Amino acid sequence: MTRDLVLWGGTGHARVLHEAIMGGPLRIVAIFDERDIQTPIRGVPIYRGEASLRDWLSSRKRNGSGPATFTIAIGGTHGRDRLVIFERLCKAGLAPTTIIHSAAWVARDAVIGCGSQVLAGARIGTHTRIGRCVIVNTGAQVDHDGCIEDGAHLGPGAILAGEVLVETCSFVGTGAIILPRRRIGSDAIVGAGAVVVRDVEPSTTVSGIPARVQVPVVNPEM
User: Fold this and answer.
1) CATH classification of 98-207, choosing from 1.10.10.10, 3.40.30.10, 2.160.10.10, 3.30.230.10?
2) Is 144 a catalytic residue?
3) What tens digit of pLDDT does each residue of 99-150 get?
4) To the nearest 5 percent, what fractions of the chain are helix, strand and coil?
5) pLDDT one-digit tens code per residue, 9-42
6) From the candidates 18, 101, 144, 153, which is the catalytic residue?
7) How many beta carbons lie within 10 A of that of residue 102, not counting itself?
8) What CATH number is given for 3-96 in this structure?
9) Where would I find the H helices in 42-132?
């Protein structure tokens, strides 16, 4: 049975999600964004802002349409934004849905939280727990006993060894490698291609091999 799906976010990640659900029971019927932009998916209307969402839901109710689900098409380091939007859409009466690409592999005992996305080629190992509104992007891997908390984002090709903890709203960049039993603190950013051999403190940015905290460059002539 086909289920109607609403996206919040109207740029590239919306197209990624559209591809991820093709051939499945979900059908994108509307896209919402705070900006005045063109729809990223041909044939799917895009609306601007919360007022448009309320009008759309009211019209849907008057027409006797069934319930709709939603997911958030916002990637990057915007984990906090995803969690705020998640709560807002739930209060509006939409139901969150979890998207797992048919080309992803998820261990049978892994737990995937509501509103999360596991994209093409991603691999989720045994005894792994994924929170709400998490993005496990294309080709990313989480080995056994991993824990990825709410709002976190693992970029394309990121590799997390066993027993890694990624705390709330952190971002692990493209191709980064996290060694076993490391902790990535909340709101931290791990740069693309970094190799993390030590814990990363909350709200810090690390990069390089091995990964080190980024120190702002000061121009002595200023």
Assistant:
1) 2.160.10.10
2) yes
3) 999 999 999 999 999 999 999 999 999 999 999 999 999 999 999 999 999 9
4) 15, 30, 55
5) 999 999 999 999 999 999 999 999 999 999 999 9
6) 144
7) 10
8) 3.40.50.20
9) 49-62, 79-91
